[in-house]
C-alpha cells in the first residue's frame, strides 16, 4: 500500500473524531468502515511481530502511519484513561511502544465521534459530551487532555463527577445510609440549566419574583441578587431557616431526583407547586438504561458509587410524573427541564413568544474576581445599563429609537451617543449575535411585506413609526422594501427556487422528510425555522386557510404549486397516528379542498415512522424512535410509500407475527399479552 492509497482510505471514512493531522476511531467502527485498510494493518503487525491490545486507532491525515491506543475502559468509563500505545511509521518501517501509568494519564473525550450512530452506547456518549459542553468544560480544549487538569476543571466549574456523570456540587446529597450528607458546595460561575432557560425566555428581567425550592448553597440566588432581582430560597441542608414564600416563578431544580422516598418526593413537588403564582420550573436528571444498569438498584432509583441516591428519569417519564402530581400538562423546555404554568394567560404568552425570533442574553455577574483593565472600567461600573441597551439592539435588530428604549438618555449621557455605545458593545459581545438578529428581523419583515402584496398592501403613510424605522434601517426606503418583497413573492413561481429551499430546509431542520423532486414534509412546529421562501410559501397558504399551528404536518409540493396540511388523531401520544383531515391548498388557483377522514368518507391513512418528523423537544421522541426501530426490524411487507392501511397492518401483525401494538410497545397475542421487548 502506498501513502497515497492510505490517505485515500482515510478520507473515505464516514465517522471519526477529526483533529488537525489525525482521525480517531474505535476498533469496532474502524473494521466495519475500513475493512481493507484494517486487514492491511493487521498483516503489518504480524510481520513486525507486534500483537498488542488496542481499542482506538489514530490515523494520520498528513502522513503514512497510525497509532494503536489502548483504552481498556472505553465503554465503562465516561472519560477513559490511556494505558498504552503503539505508534507505527509505515514509511520508515519503525514502531514505538509507550506505557502510561501513574495518577495523571491522558484521557479521552467526545467518544460519540469515534463510534457509529448505531452503537448501543452512542446516545449515552452524546449525553456525556452534552453535559460537559453545558458546564463549559470544553471551552479550552488544550487543558483537558490529562486526568488531573480535567478533574480540577470540573471542581472549579462547581461540578462533581459521579460514576462518569456531572452533577452540580450543591445537588449531590447523601442518602440515609449513615453517610455524611452535607458535602461542601463548590463555587460556580454560571447559572444552573433551569435558570438559564428562564433567562433565555426573558423571565429574569425584573418583572417577576422568584423562589428557589431546594436552592443548595444559593449559587443561583447570589447571581440573581447581583442583577437586582427579587429572589429567595430554601434548602433543607444549607438554608433550613429560609422562609418558604410564594413567588411568580418557583424553581425546583434537580431536587426530586435525589429524594429516595417517593412520598417525600411528591410532597416536595406539591410544596413547590403550592408556592407558585405563575410558573413552576421542574428539572431532574435524565439517563438511559445503559447508564442506569451500572449501579446498584435501590427503591425506584439507584445507589451510586458515592453511596448517594439518584432517581434517573427518561424525558417522557418525568413529564408523566409531573403531570400526575400537579394535574397540569407540563411543557418540555430542554432535556430534563419542564415548565408548568399556573397562570394560563402567561402560558399562552410563552407559547406565542416561542415563535418569535427573540433571544434574551444573560451576562453573568457573580464570577471569580479578575483584574479589570482600564479600558473596561466603563463597562464594569455601568454594565447593567449597557447590557440592557445591547439586548434592546438584539430585539430590534437595529439601534433602538428614543421612545423604544427607556434609558436612552442615560446611555447618551454616559458615552456620548447610542452609536458609540453600540461600538463598545460590539467589542464586548459577539457581533455575530447582532448580525443574526439583524438578518432574522429583515427576513421577518420581508415575509410580512410579501404577504401584504399577496393580498392588499397598505400605503406607507398608514404604517406605525416603528415599522417606518424598520424599513429605513433594513431596506433604505419603502420602495426598495416593496421591490425586494415582490421579488421574493415572484420567486415562488420558480420551481428550482422552491426545490433548493426544500433541500436547504431538509439540511438545516432537526427533523423532516424530503422526497427528492416532489415534496418536503415537516411538522408545523418548525415553520419559523424554514428559509424565507418556504416561510412565505406557507404564509401565502395561511392567507387562504388561516393559522396552520393547529395542524400536525405540512407538505410542500415542489412542482405543483400546492401545499397539503394534515391533522392526525393521536399524533402527540400514539406511535402510529391516523390521518383525520387533509387540506390541499392550490396556491396558483387559490383553491382549497378538504378531505375529512374522520367522517368515514375515506379510509384513515396511518402515519408510519413518525420519529423522522419530530425531535427531542417532543415528549414521546425517545419512545417513538425505539418503536420505529423495532418496527423496522420486523421487515413488514408493502411498507414502501404510505405503507399498509391500519386494518391490514393489525392483521399482518397478528397473524403473521403473533403481535399486537399497545402504546409504544409490542406484545404477544396469545400469551396473555406478555411484553415481547
Describe this entry's structure for a reader.
The chain contains 21 helices and 25 strands. The protein has 677 residues and is of the alpha+beta class. The protein folds into six domains: 3-114, no CATH class; 171-353, Rossmann fold; 374-429; 442-490, no CATH class; 495-610, no CATH class; 613-668, no CATH class. Strands 1-2-3-4-5-6 form a six-stranded antiparallel β-sheet. Helix 2 (27-33) crosses helix 3 and helix 15 (431-454) runs parallel beside helix 19 (532-545). It is globular and about 85 Å long. The protein starts with a helix and ends in a 9-residue tail after the last strand.
SSE topology sketch:
Blueprint: H1 3-11, E1 17-19, E2 22-26, H2 27-33, H3 35-48, E3 56-60, E4 65-70, E5 84-89, E6 94-99, H4 122-134, H5 147-156, E7 159-162, E8 165-168, H6 193-200, E9 210-213, H7 219-226, E10 231-234, E11 247-253, H8 262-275, E12 276-283, H9 289-292, E13 296-298, E14 301-303, E15 309-310, H10 315-326, E16 331-334, E17 337-341, H11 344-353, H12 377-396, H13 408-415, H14 418-428, H15 431-454, H16 465-475, H17 478-491, H18 495-508, E18 513-515, E19 519-523, H19 532-545, E20 553-557, E21 562-569, E22 578-586, E23 591-596, H20 621-633, H21 646-657, E24 659-662, E25 665-668
Parallel strand pairs: 9-10, 9-11, 11-12
Antiparallel strand pairs: 1-2, 2-3, 3-4, 4-5, 5-6, 7-8, 12-17, 13-14, 14-15, 16-17, 18-19, 19-20, 20-21, 21-22, 22-23, 24-25
Helix pairs in contact: 2-3, 12-15, 15-17, 15-19
Keywords:
677 residues, 37% helix, Rossmann fold, disordered C terminus
